[in-house]
Write a structure and sequence with these properties.
Number of strands: 0
Radius of gyration: 13 Å
Order of helices and strands: HHHHH
Structural class: mainly alpha
Helix content: over 70%
Distance between the termini: 23 Å
Largest sheet: none
Strand content: under 5%
Number of helices: 5
């Protein structure tokens, strides 16, 4: 997705869309399809980068950056954080719910 189109979404819509990729990643992880899981996580990173590049989100850059760290930890299986994809999926669901209202 291009930056200009992404910037038309509010932060809740952006995070809800990122959450869709996280949900796909969890689905593929549950099926043991790690390559597809990783592709979904890579798309999440791309969308997080677009979110960070959106000037209206500058006040949230710390939180978005931390989220990227947590996803990178999951992607690499480093285990530095005690967070798994289902945990993130629950968090993102809240953003998607707000975005729908």
């Amino acid at each position: 997705m291009e930056l200009e189109k992404w910037q038309k979404l509010n932060i809740f819509e952006q995070l809800g869309n990122i959450g869709s990729e996280v949900s796909r990643a969890r689905y593929f992880e549950d099926k043991g399809e790690i390559k597809k899981r990783n592709s979904s996580l890579e798309r999440s990173f791309d969308l997080l980068d677009l979110t960070l590049a959106d000037r209206k989100n500058v006040g949230h850059s710390g939180e978005i950056g931390r989220l990227k760290e947590v996803l990178a930890d999951i992607y690499s299986a480093a285990g530095n954080y005690s967070v798994a994809l289902p945990d993130l999926e629950k968090m993102f669901f809240e953003y998607a719910t707000v975005a729908r209202k």
